[in-house]
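Entry 14. Ran structure prediction on the chain below.
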Amino acid sequence: MKVTKLVSTCDIKDCPTIYATDRGTVLVQGGTPTDHGLQIPAHETLVEIPMELLQKAIRDKLI
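Output, structure tokens:
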């Protein structure tokens, strides 16, 4: 899989980030919340990212 960084909230590697893949999908890097109370299947996960990151990606027409 080829991954391309689209947008991040900072310049280091451990910040919330949105990536595009060569599979026509998007990868999202962010924190894993544990206090959500949802039933998530074992093959899935939740990732929490700041709204600011999504707004930046939309504003910059990246997604």
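The chain has a mean pLDDT of 91. Will compare against last week's run tomorrow.
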